[in-house]
Amino acid sequence: MEDLQLNISTTKKKNSSSGRPSPKTSSDYKFLAKPNYSGKIIARKRPQNGIPRKFIEKYSEEPKNKIAKLSDNNVTKPHDLQSKLRDLSENKGKFHGRNYQDVTDDLVLKQKQRSGAWISSLFKNNPDVPRMGQRAVKPVVEKVFAGRTFQDLNLHPHIVSNMKQNMNLTELMTVQQKAIPVILEGRDVLIRSQTGSGKTLAYALPIIEGLQAIRPKINRHDGIRVVVVVPTRELAVQTYELFEKLLKSFIWIVPGLLSGGQKRKAEKARLRKGLTILVGTPGRINDHLRHTHSLNFAKLGCLILDEADRLLDMGYEKDVAAIVKAIEDHKKAATYDPMALVKQTINKAPEKEETLIEDPNKEEMGDKHPLTDVFLSTERQTILLSATLTKAVENLAGITMKEPVFVDTSDGKAVVADSLKPNKKDEVKSLKIAAQPEAVSPEIKLTKQKSDEISNNAKGNANTGIKAFSGANHPEIFGTETTENKHKPKDDKNDSDSDSDYEYFKVQKELGEDKKNETKKVDEKEEQEEQPNMFENALKTAIVEDELVLPSTVNQTFILIPMKLRLVSLCSLIVEHCILNKKGGKMIVFMATLEMVDYHSELIETVLSGKDGKKRKQKKGKSDEKAKKKKGDDEDKDEESSDEYEIDYQAPAEGGLVPMEVDVFSLHGSMPHEQRMEVFKQFRTARRGVLFCTDVAARGIDVPRVDLVLQYCAPASATDYVHRVGRTGRAAQVGAATMFLLPSEAEFVRHLEQKRIRLRQTDESKVLESLRSVAPTAHTVQRAAIAVQAKLENTAHSSKDWLARASRAYTSWVRFYSGYPREVRPYLDARQLHLGHAAKSFALREAPGALAKRARSDLNLKKERPMNRLSVKEEEEKKRPGLPKMKPGAFGSKIVYKQNSMHTASEFDSGLPPLDNYTKKKKK
Ligand SMILES: Nc1ncnc2c1ncn2[C@@H]1O[C@H](COP(=O)(O)OP(=O)(O)OP(=O)(O)O)[C@@H](O)[C@H]1O
Q: What pTM was computed for the model?
């Protein structure tokens, strides 16, 4: 192995005219081979506490007097700085206005200035990188497009033409083909299909179809008819914008947005004005339920929970439960009519008619969908959607849905499983008579276990009462409709000649007695044991098998990278993808905590393009404030022009590694709302660039042209992996997803393989290649990497502020790492971490002990317990009592609690657990 212990020195040329040092370029770095190299790899001992002993001695001479003066009881020797520092720290870290950390920071910064030739040991003492090989994993595949068009769905012509003209969409996606007819029937539906498969339109189109058909036309004052609950603000904005586009032809249907971060006052005003479709995040909707009288769900016909599994995670579950309860309460309150109740008990009218609100204009209505009936009734339709299902979703479905249908689009399963239960004897009987072999479309394959049962049912032999969703029910989709049966009543099966009629009745008569007995027996049996439910079975299979589906158009890889090389490898990928790629690449980098996102985005932007990322953001913040003031407080931010979102870039500063600007964006849950929305909008329209983010961007967001997803930190679950990867390869587009793993984390790949996710290992030695283009004087890739690392470290040690942010990011990551959920902890084990190497991957030169001390004295790290910021806080609850408080587990004890892991917290808050609180509780 080549000797990589190199002295890197920056040559400080003086600018002759200004006397300032000339701009540093990559060529300014000199690589000096170690003299008298003997061929051995020499591990140079790192200074303890990040302060070299020699330096301490030298430094302590300079401020000797100063420090000597600080200590009145001069017990220790004046030159013994270390013991003085200890004294300072023991003295609660404060001494004459300066604390221990201040003094240490000065030392570390001076040390950097002194060490113009810092010796980097990037390539020494790294663990071996194993070759993982690939197991025979057959990924689950889903067919994205259905081969049918929107016209086949019998939707309003304006919807179809709008889709074509404004969105350029004509062909149906599989999930849309399967789900839209079921939703139009007014049934409760649980939809599972892969990321980017068009689930949003799958529920948005039938909803609009149902609403536009109501006569007389509804208006915004009639009350909210549809609520769409989504987990993040970005997804809320995106969904709202989609509704706005789709509703261009139906201006009497008004969509509205309630997402956190906006002014309550403006939102209240919007609610007072009236809305038909409300899109929002759970916390904010819940917040308005408590404080805004005009928000009423009495007329609600449809509740949609997008990313349902995420909505039931810790932090959201309470809010979702409160929304469901509010809907039920409002509806009950609106329909409470004592006289009607008396009449009901006297007349005992059929169930369905009871629920229908009398519509005086019924005759005016033309051809309307059953869904329109639902909108006009006191009933509620519930739609749950996600690319991944959990036990919690199953439980929620059990509690909030009636006779649901499960739509799963994965190949080999392609389930549309109905839950109509067999204990409804009337339905069972009618099904027995009506069931004919053609009733089940060959296109619909059912779950493996239940397929036999269904085929029996279809032949009329079985009396399970399970109504298979069939082509006969939706002839317009499945092409089973003939001109003959189109005009016949549905239960009229006798389209044969008189002979066959005779045969039919003869057989019926002969078998009459036997059949009666058989039916009796079966009915008795049914009473004894309830027949298995098709929906439940299909759903259970989907959850138990735990098969995760990813778009087949995404090339999934992983790279095993030793800890020390992670940061330079990240730089290299960004250079390769966003700078060297002539077409202009767009990538998303997922990180564990918001501190990491902020620090890495600023550091990499500063080092690569020479701009100070932090300053640029601050400047941007100020210009935003100005723009806001100009605009006034109370108005709709949604209508802001995109010009106001333009970043006012500074001229590239000195010493960037690349000759062009790199568009770096960052997104996490604790950013100011305006900035968050602005970043999201900008990244959506950008042609190239890199977005650093937490899992806040992992769900649902649809950013065009993202061609690479990098998971810099391993996800907290296989499900999170799926959603992160799902940000690329959307709508059958080609994409790439790669994941950085430490050699100690290699087995995580096996965990994913168990869920039928197939990844390929990429050669880690190739990852650094593109760094040669930013350090052209380096003769080897390793030398280029060392140069870039030196630059990163110098930047991170260029000021106290940088140093504080670096160590905060490092600490937040260490804490995050120890909080991985139990399921993945065997693969992502904090005990395997080399914290010294980890510090290097944050461009830090201090030893872990010194960083831990720094973390303890960092006030910014002592934040309150991380929580969903959107939730109503306990104190607030006391001050303004509203709806009855929902406790965790409000959907019943069945809900499985997730560990209060950092991965959930990281989206919303600092990403730091309240260590003190935990210890206190334990002690009690
Ligand atoms: N019929 C269609 N033909 C072509 N593109 C479509 C069609 N329907 C939707 N799309 C596009 O597919 C992309 C993904 O759609 P959408 O965001 O609804 O996916 P999703 O299934 O909700 O994904 P996720 O699970 O990540 O939330 C969008 O850009 C959308 O415009």
A: 0.70
